[in-house]
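Thought: the user asked what alpha-1,2-Mannosidase looks like in 3D. I have the sequence; next I should run the structure tool and report back without guessing.
Action: structure_tool
Action Input:
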Amino acid sequence: MDGIQMVSVSVATYYQVYLSFQADIENASKEAKEMFYFGYENYMSYAFPHDELDPIHCTGRGHDHANPENININDVLGDYSLTLIDSLDSLVVFGDPVEFKRAVSLVINTVSFEKNTTIQVFEATIRSFAVYLFIYYTYNIAYYFGFCFVFSHEEFFLHAFRVIGSLLSAHWIASDDSCLLGDFFIPDYEGELLTMAHDLAARLLPAFEQTATGIPFPRVNLQRGVLPNTANETCTAGAGSLLLEFGILSRLLGDQTYERIARRINERIWQMRDEKTGLLVFASFSGVLILAGDVEEAVCQHSIYYAIWKKYGVLPERFNWHLKRPDVNFYPLRPEFAESTYLLYLATKNPFYLHVGREILDSLNSITRVRSYLYFMFLVKCGFATVHDVNDGSLEDRMESFFLAETMKYLYLCSYFYLNYFNKLLSYLLSFYLVEYGSCISHNGALPPDIS
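Observation:
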């Protein structure tokens, strides 16, 4: 009986300590959702159909036609409602079928790629193009040799692209009238997003077809192809990370053009690797290490970026370890640190990373949403602003689309997975033990269920 009473005390203590922790994480989850909708609804109110929201002046921003050399803007913004397109899958994550269906309708009926804009191939592929494919798959289930692979809600968001892309023998796609992810099925949807993805990919092809190496030009005009005197330098990520999207598109269309191009690029880059190290580029983000299975190194790498975040409240674009100061001072609301924090929590289940996620939320709210300067308040009225200089906290009037599409999504999912894990644990404790009059009675003497 003493052993049972000891278990009773342990369970009660655990319950009291972690119940308050759960409440804090629940608040973080609600806060992440509120932050997403604060940015999204203001984009729709003040900026749509432009590509981005200027959160300080509450206006929209698109391609800079007056200054074609403004690649900081023009590489990304192509006058095709980028933030709305980029937010489609976030609306699924946040469980909003009504707005999701409205957003899909808006994209189908208002967005066109018939634009005289020169954009970066990499940005167009991983943003607009990839999201079209992701959303297309929320309507469908992949079939492989007649067997239906059904993903849980958690697995889908973590692995959707990678798993579906690996179903090389998938031969047909069915409309998801089973509502696997909730009520996101659109009965009259006829594959328009896939058609749009195909249209965009076809407009990018000149960048691949006009180089001797097959490695694409970094930029292409959506109407006129590769323009004279276009820069011929590109990064390995921009050239070599297109296989997933192009491969999936080829399989869906039954046209191997896009997959063949992407494979040819990867083979060419592989031939150019360093003979001694085998390296193409040094990837230091801990999220990449997690996906590669190196959790120990990922933890170490994450701690480095966490130390920088703690110092400034955000991450500078580039930090010089020798000088112990930023080389590039701005922070454009990038998602990589939030993504790494999320992946590390999934891999380790260590609540430390939930605390880090909460700190990121607090920093974004205090620094990029409302910022105090001495005796007056500088208010970001309509969203979250880029930090122009991490040293003084000055802000820049820009909210890039990946803030809603990635940064807020990862921070929300971090608390989402914890709450689901915790609720399973709490449910087990309450069903396994009956606490009554200070004594704890074992329920059938069963072993704890698998709650991972």
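Thought: the tool returned a structure. Summarizing for the user.
Final Answer: Structure for alpha-1,2-Mannosidase predicted. The chain has a mean pLDDT of 75. The chain has two domains: 17-47+283-428, 78-271.
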